[in-house]
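Hi L.,

You mentioned the student needs an example of a multi-chain input paired with its predicted structure. This one should do, with 681 residues in total across all chains.
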Amino acid sequence: MAEAAALPTTEAVLGRSLWADAKARLFRNRAAVASMVVLAAIAIACLFGPLLTTHAYDRVHQDYVRTPPSLFAYPQPDQIRPAAERVAARMRARAEAIAVEGDALRLTLTAQRPIDERLLAFFDRSDLFGPARVIERAEEGRRLAVEVPVERRYFLFGTDANGRDLLTRTLIAGRVSLAIGFLATAVSITIGVVYGAVSGYLGGRVDLLMMRLVDILYALPFIFFVIMLVVFFGRNFVLMFIAVGAVEWLDMARIVRGQTLSIKRQEYVQAAEALGVTTSGILRRHIIPNTLGPVIVYMTLLVPKVILLESFLSFLGLGVQEPMTSWGVLISDGAKNIQGAAYMLIFPSLFLVATLFALNFIGDGLRDALDPKDR
Amino acid sequence: MLPFILRRFLSAIPTLFLIVTISFFLIRLAPGGPFDLEQPLEAKVMENLRRIYKLDRPLIEQYGLYLGALLRGDFGPSFYFRDFTIGELFARGLPVSMMLGALALGFAILIGGALGTLAAFRQNSAADYAVMALGTAGLTIPNFVVAPVLQIVFALMLGVLPVGGWNDGAVRNLVLPVVTLALPQIAVVARMTRAAMIETLRSNHIRTLRSLGLPNGVIVRHATRGAALPVVSYLGPAAAALLTGSVVVETIFGLPGVGRYFVEGALNRDYTLVMGTVVLVAVFVLLFNLVVDILYALIDPRVRYE
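Structure written out for the whole complex:
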């Protein structure tokens, strides 16, 4: 005891596990760290942004169809007068002495016959104005002085062909796209890992059969497969990502099988077998945890692939249905409106591409971090 | 070598048979039929249609009939494009798709390979980073974004190229679709070539060449062989996918290829069209896997097929 105490080693040597090492290396990769920040920002924006935009994603603004994006509030000053005249015309009256004072509009309505005051609801029905208030009646109701509040709205990303706020829709679409991306990836990873591990570990005829099935599914045209799944399940949002996940597990199964083949020859697996651990126990405790390195790398690269696939399906009209939306749907809408409203393509594309970039950089970073050959 | 090719051909037959079987029953199990229109047809008309197309027979018999016809090379009549057989549809569309795909593939190999080699030789230089950035961009920007952007810039703003259309394969009409198809492939090929090239450049025989003071051209020639292997194995399935057409590109540019038949066939329950596209793609995939294996043996003398 005394001898041990006299030894000069004062602190234990800290072991560096593979994971700690990988983490340190990942955080040294600037592109990967920046990507993680970007991805987190997009995720938070999509999650909480729609609460702050003051618009509902499915609210249609008839008076603001394909409104270009602007940092200033709508209606713009030159829009108020014609809009007020339009409303007056619908009331069969003429608008005179139109004056804008701050957030209110004062005007005088004149007509041949007395004006039905219930028609003032037309002001409220317009997206530009609030409920109108009569200040003064003259000439037996043929002349009304009216004060109408002007409703200010912001369309930072503009509006779509139905007059819905594109910012809110882009963020809501982000929720859908990200959710599908991560859930479908989880589905395909689960299927792929279990399938590959079982196939590789059992080996022999089972392996041959299981891998032959994978080969066959590979040769099936993949679009056909997805379309068939969508046809079977209907255009259902929840089943969408199961369909996508059910298609994307093939690569994963191959990767995990390859890993399993080398792992099952390791001493610790043989020791477990000698101790009589059940097959499922060995798979759960020894095989699958040791295949996780490549699986995680592949997973980060699969998420963008799945998001792209979902966008592609939505682009074809097979994915998410209106009024729900996803980035693919928005991009497809934007592509139809490029001539007059290019911003409808640009904003969702920016979000999608930024997300995909970030995920790819994280994936590359993880691969570099987890590859022990790279030390 | 020849016995190997023969054996691979033989082993492709059961795979193809299984693919045909699975997709035949899958599409038949799907709800709806080819003649389900918005307004239902009269019962008598429906019955006649079903008899003409032999849909009234038991499923197993239909399956047998289809297999028999397929063996004679007959894909059957289309249910949706009336008056056309699947063979005629493919005869019209396949040359278009294959031409676009082959051009895109050629550009992908040439440009992607050159960029990847350049990046590997100048690793961690500005050129390398530029190639890698281009590679990531090509991978992440979906083609249904690239295509409309190209249309805006070159057709609407600059007015130098047509927005779309086939126009009997005029070069002006080919540029935008081929670029759209080729960009992601260029990106992947460049990335893969770079990675494989870096690996090869570290190997002994390249170090020997370097120590002999040989010019870069000679080193590239020797390294290309080693670096080509992973790229070739990627290009097999990619070539099959490119040559059988792209739904997105054909839809956006309005081209009469076979890519859109996948979606149209499945959505309209055009049974024979779906089966035709499945067989078409499967044959291409199997064929190109074989080509990849043969190329492997040609490129790498260590690979032997007995």
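You could point out the following to them. Residues 166-202 of chain A form the longest helix (37 residues). The interface with chain B takes residues 212, 215-216, 218-221, 223-224, 227-228, 231-232, 304, 308, 311-312, 315-316, 318, 328, 331-332, 334-335, 338-339, 342, 345, 349, 352-353, 356-357, 360-361 of chain A (CB under 8 Å).

Best wishes,
N.
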